Amino acid sequence: PASVPDVDKFAYVERVIRLLELDDIADCLVGDPDSGSGISLAQRKLLSIGVEIVAKPKILFLDEPTSPCGEAASFRIISILRRLAVEEELTIILSLHQPSSLLFDQIDRLLLLVRGGHPVYFGDIGDDAHTLINYFERNGAPKCPPTANPAEYILDVVGASDIDWPQAWRDSPELHSTLVEIDRINQTCRAECTFDLADSARRFARSHTYQFHLVARRMLLMYWRNTDYLMTNLALQLIGGLVLGLAFLQIKSGTGGLLQMTYACFMAACLCVFTANQVIPEFIRQRRVFIRESATNQYGAAAFVCSCVAIELPFLVSTSTIFFVVFYFMTGFSTTSARVAFFWLQYIVLAIHSLTLGQAMSAISKTESVAAMLSPLATTVFALYSSALIPVDMLPGVWRYTLRWLSPYFYWLEAVVSDQLHNIQVRCRPEELFTFDPPANMTCGEYAGEWVKSAIGYIDNLDSASECRYCPYRVGDEYYQSFSWEYTHRWRNLGILLGFIAANIVITALAIKFIKYSRR
User: Fold this and answer.
1) Which is deepest, 273, 300, 421, 515, by most CB within 10 Å?
2) Are 379 and 362 in contact (CB under 8 A)?
3) Is a pLDDT exceeding 50 seen at residue 233?
C-alpha cells in the first residue's frame, strides 16, 4: 500500500531475491520460454513465486510448483519454499504431482482427497512419514515396505483397497482433534486478530494513476528492447512512403491530377492496415502478461489499456511522420504551411485510429490469426464505403446511410482532399479537354458563354468559332463536391476521427475487462 515507503519496498524485494537464491540472475531478462531464451524453467517458477511473496500474503497457494522440472530443480524449489515458510512465517499450501520421497519429506502436513472431494487424511506427516504411515496401517492398510516412497504407498493403498477410507477418516480420533484445533484457532483469531477494513475493501493497493505510471514505464522498456518490432514499423512506413511517392510522383495539374491526388490519399489511408496488423502480436503478448498479473489484482484493465495506447504513440508519431515526409513531398502536394500541417495532423490521427483498431481487434480475438483476419476485413469495409471507389450516388440506399457514415476513411478523405483542392485553379491539359463545334457564325462564348457561367468548368477558347475546348472543372472545389464532400467539414471530420479512436479504446477496455480467453 501507499503507506509503506518505497525504500522499505525495495529492501524487501532484495530480501525475497536472496531468499529465492536468485541473486545471480537479478538483472537478467526473463526471456521467452517458447524460444528457449532467458532464465531456466526452475528460475521462472521461483520468479513467479517471488512476485506473489513481495505482496506479503498470509497464505500462499501453489499449483504444482515443481512441474515439469527435474528431480534436482524440484528439490531446490521445495527446499526454498520450506525456508520461506520458516523465515517469513508464511503458510504455503501446494499440490504436488507424484512427489519423490525427498520432496515428500519436506512437507509438514498433508490433505489427501479421493474422487468426489472426500477427505481421507489431514494432519502431520511426521519424520520419514511415520505419522502418516502409522495412521493407514492402524486402519487396515498393509505394511509399508522400508524402501517404498510414502507418497506412492498411500496412493496405492487408497486406490486399490476395499476399505472405505473417507468413512474411516470421519470415525478417526484425528478428525476430532483437528476440529478441536480449528475451533481453538477461530476463537483466538476473533479475540486477537485485527483487520484493516479499508485495505481489505480496496481492490488495488495503489491508485489507477500510480498503476498507469508503473505499467507504462515497464512497457516502454519492453518496447525499447524489442528492436525487431520498432525497425519493422519504421521499414514499413519508409518503404510504403517510397512506393506511393514513386507511384504518384509529382502529380500534374488537370483533371487527371485531381483523380491521382484522390487515389494517392486513398492508398495512404489503406496502408494504415500495416499499423493495425503490426500491433496485433505485441498486444496479445502483453495481454497474456496482464491476464496473469491481474488475477492477483496487481493492476487493472484501465491502466493496461491506457499504457498500451500511450506507449505506442511516440513510436507511431515518429514513423508516421517519416511516411508523411516521404509521401507528401514526392507526390507534389501543396507546400502551403497550413495545408502541410493539416495533412500531417490528419494522417497522425488516422494512424492512431489504425493502432487502436488493431488493439480492439486483438482484444476481442482469442488468437493472433483471428485478429489478423478481422483487421483487414474491417479496413476493407472502410475502404469500399469511403466514396473513393464507389460514388455515393451508386451506393445502395441502406449502405449509403449506414456503412458510409461508419467509415473513418470517408471522413479522412473528405478532410484532406477538400483542404488540398480548396480554391485551387484547375488547368486542363490539351488531352483532357472536351471539344465541340458551335453553330455557324457563332463563337464559343456566344454559344455556350451563358451556360458555362452557371455550370461547373470553363471554356478555354471563348473567342474561337470552331472546336470549343471545355474543361469540366474550374477550381478544385467543383471536383470534390462531386463526391458530396465539403471543405467546411474538415475540422468536424477530425473530431469524428477522434471519436472513432475513443470508441476503439472503449471496445478494447471492455474486451480486456470482460473477455478472458486464458488465465495462464
Assistant:
1) 421
2) no
3) yes
pLDDT bracket for residue 520 (50, 70, 90): very low
Residue 106: per-residue pLDDT: 87
Q: What number of other Cβ atoms are within 10 A of residue 129's Cβ?
A: 22
CA–CA dist 20, 12 (Å, integer): 12
Tell the burial category of 49 from Cβ atoms under 10 Å away from its Cβ (0-12, 13-18, 19+): buried
CB 307 within 8 A of CB 511: no
- The answer to whether residues 497 and 416 touch, using CB atoms and an 8 Å cutoff, is no
Q: Say whether pLDDT at 198 is over 70.
A: no
CB 414 within 8 A of CB 422: no
At residue 460's C-alpha, the angle toward residues 455 and 463, to 5°, is 105
Give dist(CA 154, CA 143) in Å, integer.
Answer: 11
DSSP string of 438-453?
Answer: PPTT--HHHHHHHHHH
Which residues partner with 212 through β-bridges?
none
Contact, 49 vs 81, CB < 8 A? yes
User: What's the mean pLDDT when you consider all of the chain?
Assistant: 88
Q: What is the DSSP string of 45-79?
A: HHHHHHHHHTT--SEEEEE-TTTT--HHHHHHHHH
Give CA–CA dist 50/328, Å, rounded. Answer: 52
Q: How far apart are CA 18 and CA 80, in angstroms?
A: 10
| 434 phi, psi to nearest 5 deg | -95, 130
- Alpha-carbon gap, residue 379 to 385, rounded angstroms: 10
Determine how many CB atoms are found less than 10 A away from the CB of residue 227.
9
Give yes or no for a contact between 386 and 409, defined as CB atoms under 8 angstroms apart: yes
Residue 377, C-alpha cell as written in the block: 476485413
Q: At what angle do helices 301-331 and 273-294 cross, to 10 degrees?
A: 170
| Angle between helix 301-331 and helix 490-514 axes, rounded to 10 deg | 140
| 464 contacts 443 by C-beta, under 8 angstroms | yes
- Please check whether residue 19 is in contact with residue 84, taking contact to mean a CB–CB distance below 8 angstroms: yes
Cα–Cα distance between 196 and 156 in angstroms, integer? Answer: 46
CB neighbour burial string for 329-347, b if at least 16 within 10 angstroms, e if fewer = ebbbbbeeeebbebbbebb
Residue 201 has which C-alpha cell? 475493501
* Inter-residue contact 212 to 301 (CB < 8 Å): no
Q: Quote the pTM value.
A: 0.82
